[in-house]
Amino acid sequence: MNGVIKALVPTSVDLESGKRKGGFGFILDEVGDDRFFHANDVRGTDFNSLTLGQRVQFDPLDTGVRANKLRAYKVRLNESQGNPEPAATPRHS
After folding, report:
1. 2-77: in CATH 2.40.50.140
2. If the chain, 93 residues long, is cut into consecutive pieces of 10 residues, what is the mean pLDDT of each piece?
3. CB neighbour burial string for 44-79, b if at least 16 within 10 angstroms, e if fewer
């Protein structure tokens, strides 16, 4: 599934380098849902290299019946050169 990085939240920052040492984020997926991911879910790059608005691919993981349980894992950079926008309006319940 494709999406766009919507938010990145570092849980700690190295004071010398200023780099995020861990954290989590949210991806706006193709259908307009927000999907949570943890820094450990990132593959092929590291959490520090992700930026807001960056296009990514991920494997969806629905951990429950409720919409607020949507997760993304195996998050990786989008390899396609085309950058179509995901759904314009996020769905919220």
Report:
1. yes
2. 94 82 91 92 89 94 65 82 46 51
3. eeebbebeeebbbbbebeeeeeeeeebbbbebeeee
